[in-house]
Amino acid sequence: MRSQLARKPEKTYHHGDLRDALIKAALREAERGGAEAISIKALAKQLGVSQPAPYRHFADREALLAAVTAEAFRQLSATFRAAMAKSSEQSKLSRLAQAMLDFGLRRNGIYRLMFASRIVSCAAKGSELHEATRETFALVIEALEVPAVGYLRERQALKIWAALHGVVMLAEQGLFTGEAAHATREDLVQDFVSETKAALAVAIKDARRKKKGA
């Protein structure tokens, strides 16, 4: 005898499930082609829902991109935390820097979504995306493993953040010229780490000396 119980269609989503499903599906598309690969219409078809359904969760494509980028930053933060938590003779900053290089080259579509589009620059202060980027940068500061002295940590964190980004982008574009300097990408990243830690130590020592002399 056939059961009288109604069965849920395979691709029916509860409230909230569709939002998560859209973000996960959009991340997969971004892995292949960055922000340009994300289409709400295509995602709706892929997930087997009506074209208007995604708009119950996202006002427009820009809102979806912001949510997807926020999730990408949370994943990068998780990668940083895992790298920093490992038992290693390397400093936390070295482990974080190498993790960023690996993330940027291995997941380049996602990386371009995060760093090579205007999505973050359009994020409102206090928004989900804004907070996700602040969390990631806070981990770079934490990896420096020094106490706060003015804004010296933040300045050095920003410098190495920019340097690491440069290595990833040059490598992805085929413009990395490490061969000419007889250095690998990893060597260059380690140079940045050493220089950052040395510069920060000198800056902190100088700031404390000036404070004592004031």
Automatic annotation (TrEMBL):
Report the DNA-binding ranges: 39-58
Iron: present as a keyword of the record? no
**A Pfam family that the UniProt record links to this protein:** TetR_N
List the Gene3D superfamilies hit by this protein, alphabetically: Tetracycline Repressor, domain 2 (1.10.357.10)
Which keywords, in A-to-Z order, does the entry hold?
A: DNA-binding, Transcription, Transcription regulation
Which GO molecular-function terms appear in the entry?
DNA binding
Q: Please verify whether the record's keywords include Transcription.
A: yes
Q: Where is the HTH tetR-type domain?
A: 16-76
The protein's name? TetR/AcrR family transcriptional regulator
Q: Which organism is it from?
A: Bradyrhizobium zhanjiangense
